[in-house]
Amino acid sequence: MVVKGLEVAVVAVTKTMKKNHELAKVLAAASCALIGSLSTAHAEESWDVDSAFLLYSESDGRVSAAEPVISATKNYDSETRLNVKLVADTLTGASANGATPSDEAQTFTSPSGNGTYTAAVGDQPLDDTFRDTRVALSSNWNAPINRDWAYGVGGYVSKEHDYQSLGVSSSVSRYLNQKNTTLTLGLGAANDTINPEGGVPTGLFQVPESASSSEFAQRDDSESKSIMDAVFGLTQVVNRNTIMQFNYSINTSSGYLTDPYKILSVIDDDSTGNNYGGNYTVNNRNLYLYEKRPDSRLKQSLYWQTKHQFDNNDILDVSYRYMFDDWGITSHTIDAKYRFRFDHQYLEPQLRWYSQSKADFYHRYLDSSAYTEVDFASADYRLGDLDTYTIGLRYGYQFADETEFYTRFSLYHQESSGDDGYGKLTSQELYPGLDAAMLMIGYKF
Amino acid sequence: MKFIQKLPIEARLNPSKHPVPTVWSEGGYSYRVQFECMASDYSILIECDRVDLVIEAAKKAIIEAWRIEHKFSRYQVDNTFSMIHSWPDVKQTLDQETAQLMLFSYHAHQVSGGLFDITSGILRQAWRFDGSDNLPSPEQIQTSLVHVGWEKLGWSPQSPDQLCLPKGMELDFGGIGKEYAVDKMLKLSLSIFGDVPVAVLINGGGDIACSGPRLDGQGWRVGIESLKADHTSDQIISLSSGALATSGDRHRFLLKSGVRYSHVLNPLTGWPVEKAPRSVTVAAPNCVNAGILATLSLLQGNNADAFLKSLAVPYWIYSERG
């Protein structure tokens, strides 16, 4: 009896607890509904997580990528935060190897030297062995030193099967003019190691027929490069609705800056022969050379960004970047986004234009009469004259609990240009365009 | 504390004719703005190095507090409260804010099993808590109870802006008005600062809400009164997020034949709740939430402590013995 009585009492208490728990929940929700949700804006230390999934697909299915991203930020207060970001991407497909298309079928040695692949007549030579998975982890810590100064430190590591990168960064900021002006100096250093399939090929050397060639025997397994950069930034609050940022950055790389998988075609420029404009052959084999880039690069860039919030809460974000380097590349990037804001939703169209002039040593191909005289050469379209256009639309929905779902769809178009060659080469498409579509789906909580 | 300036506010935004608020410096980038509202001393503490924004935010918050006070005051003639009560027995359309307050009151009434009832204010006509021994007669209480009871209202949560108020009944938003004003003041004042670093604490006569910790990362030091004359058991707590609200009888009670009748009335019986704690302070994410939990716990009488425990919220309780 006693036991039963106790049981009844326990059940009653549990029921009450449950009921009161419900009561507390109802009242918490009702009070939030009454006053709106703003007061919890910086209520407590918690992780803000942004998880997203990106799908990238090039037209004609050349390269596709799937990329999950998770970024977690812990805000200790309005100025102290820790961010950890993990990115994994899987790329599959084929990439241009740098050789020109031809009026004859072409056979190429695969990077490992253990196989071959073929480009049909008139087709872009694509290395279809291209497949990679990359995992990158980065972390940043930002905190105030005192009322006028703040600092940040960060680290970065990424890994692919043939590439590793390790970096550190630090910054110090000085607030001036009642925090309306912020000056920032950032410094970074990174060290990358590349261990290509088949070893590191010899630059401007003929691509051998197979791994049994002596060129393979003398290869190193890996190379490395080091990168140092510095950013000087000025952020200015113009008024309550407008903020402007100027950056000057300088970036030096030294070491192995070449792409070990990229090659160049040597084209027969003997205008009296009947192979004028065709692949130049040595010992009955088409001559392809491994590309070679200088072992140092100094990049500088100027960046300006303005964000303005209109009276109706819409936000305009415009930026421009001018970059130039000692490889002879200059580029301009203009990016504009306009966010239409509705009660719990937003719609953000984006336009981006990037235009680049080629590097001094960029050659779509090399001439048979002169290929031995070049010190550096690359046919990588990313170093050539290039224009890219991106048009995108992002949509976001904010739920009552301040979590957000968003999705972004964008179309990317790329155009390359350069000299059209001579003889037989003129009938080949040397500068194919590229179209790609990207879809991103994310959830912030 | 150093006096900086007065903070004049246009007469039309000061319908209850309060004295001019004052701005004080507490050193560094700490400011205190003091003013009167709902018969209490209010203060706004703001830490920010943009004094222009501090002034703007304080002004906006004060105007909001005075607006709410005037709108729901029982002692005005030209406000929402008097409008509602001048149209008994007919269907009327409430403004958005009043409808929201009705919805909140409805939820509180539902979950408290009828113990929280904004129609019970009328019982105070029978009970006058002046420390005397004048108890009302049972007949007086019964007469008042005729006009008490949420379910007698012509109102439903499906259309919260439609109300038919039976003649003789009264809606009293006083039980949540002060906390509501504190939350709204905090929300409005924060909206001024955008990305500028700021810490804000609103103190509405002991009901408190803050934006988060102070700029140096420390909590705000808040005193909880013990009601003891010598204040020996006053507590100082550190508040780094959310809100605090206190419910209690302080000096409002009746004493007859050694029995102390608290001012907390049970709307179901019309009689004071027995053995209610003298004072309860509750912490919650916002002030309205803290206030309703404090009020409901007083209504539990003897069970207040157990009730609060079951809610799993921080609380401080002072009972007769304490």
Automatic annotation (TrEMBL), chain B:
E.C. code: 2.7.1.180
UniProt cofactor(s): Mg(2+); Mn(2+)
InterPro entries: ApbE, ApbE-like_sf
Note describing how the cofactor binds: Magnesium. Can also use manganese.
Broad class of enzyme this protein falls into: transferase
One GO MF term: metal ion binding
Keywords: FAD, Flavoprotein, Magnesium, Metal-binding, Transferase
Binding site for Mg(2+): 175, 295
Reaction(s) catalysed by this chain's protein: L-threonyl-[protein] + FAD = FMN-L-threonyl-[protein] + AMP + H(+)
Family, per entry: Belongs to the ApbE family.
Protein name as catalogued: FAD:protein FMN transferase
